[in-house]
Amino acid sequence: MDYEQKSKIKLKTIPIGNKDYVEVQERIRAFHEHYNGNIVCEVIDKGSMCIDRLTGKETERYEVIAKVYPYSCEPEADEYMREIYFTGHAIELATQGFINKTSALENCETSAVGRAMGFLGIGIEYGVASYQEVKQAKEVQSKSKPRSTDFKRLNFKMQTIKMLKIFPDIDNAMKKYNKAKASDDFFKSDFELYEKRADEILTEFDVDLDKAGKGLIKGDK
């Protein structure tokens, strides 16, 4: 089978939104069916500690590089062809996603292999990212964003601070907050920093939110 034929390998897909994606195991199946090569994975980081920016929590970090050699076992291939490989790289944090709580390293390996297969051209018409990679990214993103109830709660606290005039720079602080939360890069950990500062001010002046909030219109997001 020549390259043009291999690039047209039929793969099963799963939709996410209005786009189809290929699962990693489907790419691996196609690789072993249509190529005579091997897959090599190297663990670069096996659980070093770092801070997850999305949650603000300390967590284990895993990093894997996968190399896919499509012709390494091909009898008719020369030495140059056998050394050709395609690389995939992945990083996972133990705090991101349900699977990563117990299997972050394995998940990282799967993602790296899937990306390497994509760069080889298997399922590339559906994108380099695999179904698993996109699904997890969307789940993590949805959980890492503040909810509407979070925004309403903090807005109520800021309005209370403004009403009681206990923080002279509250107007600028609110402008900065409103600008930040409009960004796509505003995560729950960022939100918690603003709420922590508001709580510090309220605690410093011994404010009872239930009493102070009477008659105050609660704002939405």
Describe the structure.
There is one protein chain. With 221 residues, the protein is of the alpha+beta class. The chain folds into two domains: 142 residues, Enolase-like, domain 1; 65 residues, no CATH class. Helix content is 47%, strand content 18%. It has a three-stranded antiparallel β-sheet with strand order 3-4-5. Strand 3 and strand 4 form a beta hairpin. Helix 2 packs across helix 4 and helix 6 runs parallel beside helix 8. The C terminus is likely disordered.
List keywords for this structure.
221 residues, alpha+beta, Enolase-like, domain 1, three-stranded antiparallel beta sheet, two-stranded antiparallel ribbon, 5 strands
**Helical segment tally?**
9
Cα-atom radius of gyration: 25 Å
The CATH level-2 architecture of the largest domain is identified as: 2-Layer Sandwich
C-alpha termini separation? 57 Å
For the biggest sheet, the summary is: 3 strands, antiparallel
What is the highest CATH level, the class of the largest domain? Alpha Beta
% residues in beta strands:
15-25%
Structure summarized in a few sentences:
The chain is an alpha+beta fold and 221 residues long. It has helices spanning 3-6, 24-34, 79-82, 100-120, 131-144, 148-164, 170-181, 188-204, 209-212, and strands at residues 14-16, 19-21, 38-51, 58-69, 86-93. It contains 9 helices and 5 strands.
